[in-house]
């Protein structure tokens, strides 16, 4: 009989309590005591390093479940994680998400060492526009308020008046005194802003750039129609990075935090989640009674995060895992995000 290490056994049991519910695993893994035993030494090491280094790990809901439930201190959507980054007192912040999120954490917590597990974890939205592009738009529409979605670089944020997230975008844009709004970088979210503000009777002209989320732009109304025909009583839940047609055909549209809340508070035989598959994994863990019919998609950038890379970034970060920002640019970007916090009342509850 093979001798078992009681510390590893206890950690494997702890991991199993969450992971056993995950069916929508990005690698098709089935979590059981054996697979949990395999990762337990690594999660133990990371959790030990966290204490040693005075570190906190922020995890976006899209990253792999063993990171979210194995080592994450806070899990949620962009708004919630930005708040946590701002409040963080730790010396080190590991951001398991994508680079623009880690940059946002550095903008808000400049004294912390902010590290990102994989420097190549970009985002098709954030990578679609530069600060220079925004300056050109501002020159063309000098009377406009300049609003950026949080999925943008620090350089872009530094050019903007206010930042928004998927959880507060409609309320903030509606509140701005200017009628004309430059909105970057998401063209599809801009379409959703137009239709939502029209529905609310708010008159705004939205000028947008041409970025899209490579994950959410792929969902279609045909997919929704087929799913509804096959699964009577289905609830369709989508993100505002989807097309306006998909949003209009959905039962609920919101940030990933709001999508989770909606599913948890809604009785329905089936749910179709038009977002990244990590969110389905989270719901399977936290609301195991619900049925998800598939149809979600993977974000290749979010999936660049692994436990090994989290460990390495914590233990001895390579220079390209450390987020650094020019201080003058950081201060301008911080003003743009702080304006978002001021205009978000009450704070959208995105944690779960
Ligand atoms: P949330 O802020 O809703 O989590 O969205 C982040 C994101 O990147 C969605 O693709
Ligand atoms: Fe960017 Fe889309 Fe990935 Fe979110 S899901 S990080 S918006 S590419």
Q: Could you characterize what this model shows?
A:
- The chain has 3 domains: about 5-120 and about 305-325, NadA-like (Rossmann fold, 3-Layer(aba) Sandwich), CATH 3.40.50.10800; about 125-210, NadA-like (Rossmann fold); about 215-300, NadA-like (Rossmann fold).
- It has 15 helices and 11 strands.
- It has helices spanning about 5-20, 35-55, 65-70, 80-85, 100-110, 130-140, 155, 170-175, 185-200, 220-230, 245-250, 255-265, 275-285, 305-315, 325-345, and strands at about 55-60, 75, 90-95, 115, 145-150, 160-165, 180-185, 205-210, 235-240, 250-255, 270-275.
- The chain has a 4-stranded parallel beta sheet, with helices on both faces. A 4-stranded parallel beta sheet has the order 6-5-7-8, with helices on both faces. A 3-stranded parallel beta sheet has the order 10-9-11, sandwiched between helices.
- Residues about 350 have low confidence and may be disordered.
- The structure holds 1,3-dihydroxyacetonephosphate and iron/sulfur cluster.
- 1,3-dihydroxyacetonephosphate binds near residues 77 and 165.
- The site of 1,3-dihydroxyacetonephosphate (13P) has 10 residues, from loops.
Shape: globular
Strand order of the largest sheet: 2-1-3-4
The helix-and-strand class reads alpha/beta
| Count, helices | 15
Strand content: 5-15%
Taken in chain order, the helices and strands follow as HHEHEHEHEHEHEHEHEHEHEHEHHH
How many structural domains?
3
Instruction: State the total count of DSSP E strands.
Output: 11
**Low-pLDDT ranges:** 348-352
Radius of gyration: 20 Å
CATH topology category name of the largest domain: Rossmann fold
Present as ligands are: 1,3-dihydroxyacetonephosphate, iron/sulfur cluster
Helix content: 40-55%
Major sheet characteristics: 4 strands, parallel
Write down the overall mean pLDDT.
96
In CATH, the homologous superfamily of the largest domain goes by the name NadA-like
CATH second-level architecture of the largest domain:
3-Layer(aba) Sandwich
Question: What is the CATH top level name of the largest domain?
Answer: Alpha Beta
Distance between the termini: 41 Å
